[in-house]
Amino acid sequence: MNLSKTLAGIGLAAGFACLPLLALSGASLAQPRAPAAMKETMDIGDEPGRISTEEVTITDGPYARQMVLFRSNEAPGTVVIHSGERFLYVVQGNGRALRYGIGVGREGFTWSGQVQVSRKSEWPDWRPPPEMLQRQPYLPRFMAGGPGNPMGARALYLGSTVFRVHGTNQPETIGQAISSGCFRLANGDIIDLYERVPVGTKVIIRHNATL
Prior knowledge:
Layout: H1 3-12, E1 23-25, E2 28-30, E3 66-69, E4 79-82, E5 87-93, E6 96-101, E7 104-105, E8 113-122, H2 130-135, E9 154-158, E10 164-166, E11 177-179, E12 183-184, H3 187-196, E13 202-206
Parallel strand pairs: 4-13, 7-11, 10-12
Antiparallel strand pairs: 1-2, 3-6, 4-5, 5-6, 8-9, 8-13, 9-10
C-alpha cells in the first residue's frame, strides 16, 4: 500500500463519509479523535430509506459466510480484514477461520493498520456532517436506526477513528469497493459477527493477504 498516495487522496476528499484522520506507525494505526460532526457518517451512493430487513444474508457464492482454512499466528477471536480480497475473517485456531464477504473502500480510501473494537451498536443512528449535506442537500439531517438506515442492523466501531464494520441496506454491494473506508456486511452477517466479537477485540486491516 502506498500510504502517502492514500492519505493524499483522502485529504482531497475531506468531508466524505467515514473519513478518518490517519497516521500509521509501523504496522499500527494511530487513532486521533475525529471531530464530533464526523462521528455519524454515511457513504456516498447509499440509499437512506431503502428497506432491507435483518434477515438478509448472503447464502450462495464466494461471499457467503463459511468456515475456511486460514493460516495465522493471531489468537482465536482476532478479526483480520483483507480488503483487497473483500473478506473479513474471525480466527478460530487450528488453521481455520470464519469468513464473511464484505464491501470495502473505493480507490483512494483503502487503508491498513491495527485497532480494537471500541464500541458496538444495534441499529445505529446516522447524522450526516455539514460537508455531506452541502453536496447532497436532499439527505435527512438525522435518521434513527432501523431497516431503512444505510448503517444497517449493527455497527462495530474501530478505535477512535470514524471507520466501522457495519451492516447495509444494499446487500448487492458486498464484494464491491464502494465505501469511503468503512467495511460493510449484509445485515444477517453483521448480526452474526456482532454476537461473536466483543468490545476490545483486536482488528487487523490488510489491503492484501500475506503468506
